[in-house]
Every structure is written in structure tokens, then in C-alpha cells.
Amino acid sequence: MRVFGLALAMLLACGAPALAEKILIESPEAPKAIGPYSQAIKNGGLVFASGSPPFDPAGKIDYSLLDVTAQTRRVLDNIALTLGAGKLTLADVVSATVYVTDVNDFAAVNAVYASYFKAPYPARTFVQVAKLLHNVKVEITVIAAAK
Prior knowledge:
The chain is of the alpha+beta class.
């Protein structure tokens, strides 16, 4: 019985973050969600930001017509706006996934990315995909650790 109680206590302790309340994080300055998803959700000590394409929050610039460098800057600026609504910064990012439509854009995306993040850098995955929404060249999603 004692082993069962210890196992139950460990399960509850390890499972506690999964049972935490989901809190919406949304920035009026960042592009609005265009579907049934949130800009970001805080759960426990982590903030999960949805994939951010290079959409202009003001809707004036069509970033799909610009190069991958300009698109990557817009994406990271949008992520910073969303994180800011949760009182976080890019320095709080612990993981990022970068989606590109052309893996040959690695150097250009990496140069912009390196100018936004400082060591220790977030863990990162870099993936080529067949196509992104609105024919953009890059989209990034991040996970940040709340303080």
C-alpha cells in the first residue's frame, strides 16, 4: 500500500503541470489569429506560441512578396509582440521550430535568427516543408519559460 501511495504521489507531482489552467496570451499589436487557435497559451510555467507567419499586424505589407530575410524579421517581431503580452521576451524562449519552404534559405534565416537570440540559444528544429499558408517562406513557433 505504501508503494502505491508513493507512486500516486509521484504521478500527481509529475502530472501537475499538465493539470494547470490554460491561460490565453494575446497581443492586440500582433497579427490576429485567422482560425480556431490562440496566439499563445500559458500552461504551468510554459508558454506555447502558435506558429507565426510573416503577417503584417497593420495589414499594409504583403510579406509574401518580400525576401526570406524580411519575412524572418517580421516573424520574430510578431513573436516578440505575442510574448510581450505575457510579460515575456525572446530571452525566455527555450525551444523554437523553424519551418521554411526552401532549406537553401538556412543561412539567411539563421543570420536574422542569430540577431534576435543570444546564448544560451533556444533548442531549435529547422524543417523544410512543401508549402506554408499564403505562400510565405518561413514560419516559426516557440515555447517560452515563464518566470
